Amino acid sequence: MTLLVTGGAGFIGSNFVLDRLSRSDERIVNLDLLTYAGNPANLAALAGDERHVLIKGDICDAALLERLFATERPRAVLHFAAESHVDRSIHGPGAFIRTNVDGTYTLLEAARAYVAGQDDAARTAFRFVHVSTDEVYGSLSPGEPAFNETRRYEPNSPYSASKAASDHLARAWHHTYGLPVIITNCSNNYGPYQFPEKLIPLMIVNALAGRALPVYGDGMQVRDWLYVGDHCAALARVLEAGRPGTVYNIGGCNEKPNLEIVHTLCALLDEMAPRADRSSHAQLITHVADRPGHDRRYAVDAGRIAAELGWQPAETFTSGIRKTVAWYLDNQAWVAAVQSGAYRDWVATNYEARGLNGGAA
Ligand code: NAD
Ligand code: DAU
């Protein structure tokens, strides 16, 4: 049996592949374009492991997908591949429409053609798990109930609009063609191998280098944080027992404002990697210009996946964030390797536009 994973060299995909192969011998074919966010070093522990095949390729390449389905004959697709960073989508939305919308369409079509050639049993057993985000639901006011699966879509950024479009395609391919699609909408993940353009790794990496910790606006925007291993466990349950045609929201039931996250990271670093002069890393916190159209609050109601599939997060925020800081401290060579010229160019573009002159680069 084989799983086809897309985007399995990125943050969540690589955590999924590593976790899965530590628990199962099922073969994984990992299709990843290896963009700036895809890093084969995340999968270094699998070198020489015949259960894992990494293929550099594009989900927009229909001929490649047709060949892959024909030769690998996967029993399921786990579709992680995407452009995933909101700030980059504001600077350059085109890549998001291409990969997230056209790429998902191309993958759905390839899966549909492949499944049509299967016998009844294989067709029924096949799964297409479309990994999506809570950002498709838009922004919550204080006190509003958390997003459940029937919440209206109100995407506000080019990223979330492109993911919303991909969700609609995935839903339609189930409804119209009977492709056994399951959609998951998850909250903010954190943990090992997250590229340091996202809030938590960026703050750790900058704090260790003594650089400014750029907080957008007042820093009181709220996100619902989930340890990446818990997201992977949820996806494994969905693959195993999720109902085709169903949406499952996944979240940590752990809402926190950004400023609190940054102070927590500073306190952990003060303890685990104190500065030479013993001053707190919190002195580096710098408020910068806000993200345009910044969503104020996300919160996820994960009641359906808990009730139907028995999934609950295993990690608390206290345990998960400590593990995460420890991972970045123990893997500074990984961090140094991803901070290429292209990374520095991005940091300069994003933070100089927010009034931080070279301070975050
Ligand atoms: P990531 O940016 O770290 O990784 C994305 C991966 O997709 C990279 O390996 C990249 O090389 C690959 N990729 C990009 N374009 C491709 C293409 N055209 N063809 C093949 N591969 C391509 O993203 P992530 O944070 O791991 O997110 C994975 C998925 O989970 C995304 O679909 C994202 O929308 C969703 N998600 C992320 C979060 C989060 O907090 N990070 C939360 C909820 C949902
Ligand atoms: O909610 C799920 C989504 O979470 C995923 O779909 C996205 O792929 C993922 O990137 C993430 O989106 P966010 O925009 O919430 O994540 P990010 O880490 O970019 O930002 C988290 C919050 O921190 C957000 O309110 C913006 C703020 N922020 C971010 C950066 C990079 C800062 O204040 N300063 C920063 O430098």
Describe the fold and architecture:
With 361 residues, the chain is of the alpha/beta class. The longest helix is centred in the N-terminal third of the chain and has 23 residues, at 94-116. The strands form three sheets. The chain has a seven-stranded parallel sheet with strand order 3-2-1-4-5-6-10, with helices on both faces. The protein has a three-stranded mixed sheet with strand order 7-9-11. It has a two-stranded parallel sheet with strand order 8-12. The chain is globular, with a radius of gyration of 20 Å. The chain has a domain at 2-194 and 226-253 and 297-315: NAD(P)-binding Rossmann-like Domain (Rossmann fold, 3-Layer(aba) Sandwich), CATH 3.40.50.720. The protein has helices at residues 11-23, 62-72, 86-91, 94-116, 120-125, 158-177, 199-208, 228-241, 258-272, 303-309, 317-330, 332-338, 341-352, and strands at residues 2-6, 27-32, 52-56, 76-79, 127-133, 181-186, 188-190, 213-216, 222-227, 247-250, 255-257, 285-288. Helix 1 (11-23) links the parallel strand 1 and strand 2. 44% of the residues lie in helices and 16% in strands. It contains 13 helices and twelve strands. The structure holds nicotinamide-adenine-dinucleotide and 2'deoxy-thymidine-5'-diphospho-alpha-D-glucose (DAU). Residues 84-86, 133-135, 187-188, 198-199, 202, 214-216, 221, 223, 258, 291, 298 line the site of 2'deoxy-thymidine-5'-diphospho-alpha-D-glucose.
